[in-house]
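Hi R.,

Quick one: here's the RNase H type-1 domain-containing protein sequence you asked about.
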Amino acid sequence: MKLSRNEDRDERVVIGAIFGLQLVIAYGHGETKKLMMRSLLDRFIRECTRVEIGWKPPSDNFVRLNTDGARKDNNKAECGGIIRGNHGEWLGGFAKVIGECSAFIAELWGVFEGLTLARRMGFRKVEVHIDSVVVVQVITTGKLHNKIGWSLVLNIRKLLELDWEVIIAHAYRETNKCADALANVGCQLNRTLIFYEDCP
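And here's the predicted structure, written out as tokens:
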């Protein structure tokens, strides 16, 4: 079995930690043994929780839709999104002024407009990456604790039920900067919604 670079590194960290622990048990004594074990455990935890963050291309035959929503200090909300191919190439994007609403509702609008654009462009395999864990949970489970945004969630779920393959996933905010930039463009628009065939 061939290991990926990350799996190979993780395996080396675990083997190194086990070997270090065996040395401490065999040769450590008293207070020194405790300090050595604590140091080894701290290093092991640090190494195992390190996460590489960066935009990665979608799986073969999929496109990646990154969406974002934001609300400014003046309560004006906007959303934006970008669709890229599996080589990172720009396929389409959008920015939308929403008006007054919460950041949560702006995020939902981003997903709805992004899915609508992807569908209209004819894509049949779409990975949607959203930087809000709450929005991902609400969309995937269909459970919302209050009525605000419910009709928008229903419309998103109706889009997901169409004849296409859509994967909804959480993305770290750092991997969503292009969608965030398009959402921020929304507050400067003179019209409600604009589509970009090319990168603005």
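The chain has two domains: 5-48, 63-196.

Cheers,
M.
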